[in-house]
Amino acid sequence: MSIPKVIDDVISYISGAMSRIFGPTDDSYPETGVQPYQGELKSHKKHRSD
Asked: What is the average pLDDT across 19-28?
């Protein structure tokens, strides 16, 4: 491999990573927002045995 080809490949690799990091997101997650808790709360009562 010639030196200019190696330099071109390195620049292409780094610029591809930079565009992936700083580019717009391509996530396809649904927008859910805040979800209410629908489970049972843990009881914090302490039992004393005297």
From this structure: 84
